[in-house]
Input
Amino acid sequence: MAIDSSRLIEALQNGLPICTHPYAEVASQLGCSEAEVISGIAALKESALVRRFGVVVKHRRLGYAANAMVVWDVADDMIDTIGAKLATEAAVTLCYQRPRKLPHWPYNLFTMLHGKERQSVLQELGEIRQRLKIACKFDVLFSTRCFKQRGARYY
Amino acid sequence: MLDEIDRQLLQSYQRDFPLVHDPFGEIGRCLGIEEDEVITRYQRLKDDGYISRIGPLLNHTKVGVSTLAAISVPAAMIDSTAGMINSYEEVNHNYLREHHYNFWFVVAAKDNERVDAVIQEIERKSGTDALVLPMVKSFYIDLGFKLWQSTQAD
Output
């Protein structure tokens, strides 16, 4: 029998126990079999509810201290083209369209760039703009402190 | 410091962590080390803050509801505001950024009502209006975070 995906997600959200048989431990928590947990995770990955299943690293701790949210004011009829191109850049780790909030906020495309230091991120950004010929208005919001970073809990 | 095995443990298992009876044993067989060592190393990487967890990264366009939001807070109130925002279980990311809108946070919950309620409470407690910026479309495909780009063959 397939286990309920929301219960499985909830059980996994704080992370897999680091022990010899972690799936068996999750199974005993849920009152099901180890095989059901394993096939349940495989099904979650297939279902697109889960982007990936594995190690979630803290890039800040790993020396990738410069984390810039780069926001772009892209013409509406160009956003699919530019969004798709930016998403394939190796230094870009997120690429989302979000609404403008005029007059306070003119930007509609959000990307995240990570690097070891500020200067390397800015240089990479310059190269990306040149390579993709992106001339629109943009802004760079470096993060200066991280107060919280963990997986979402929806339940 | 991290050695080559630590780097492989961090880099190579972000996307497809083994779905077998003994995943750490399986990783050990791939890397040519004992299961005990894999477990000890992952526990240390977690304790030392290199990884937040081994688990699912949810596609929040498909599960529940979430939104990015931002507020602008004076410098003197940064610490108290950080604590206030962090106190919500629904907030999973909370960053200070260099901009007029200096607090950037993500609120996730099972429905819109709860997301809106949390944002309204944060607005009330901070005495400011939030920019609420839900995702319209994702262009990004998550392949995990690429570390050590210059030294990794993949």
In short: Residues 5-47 of chain A form one domain. Chain A has a mean pLDDT of 91.
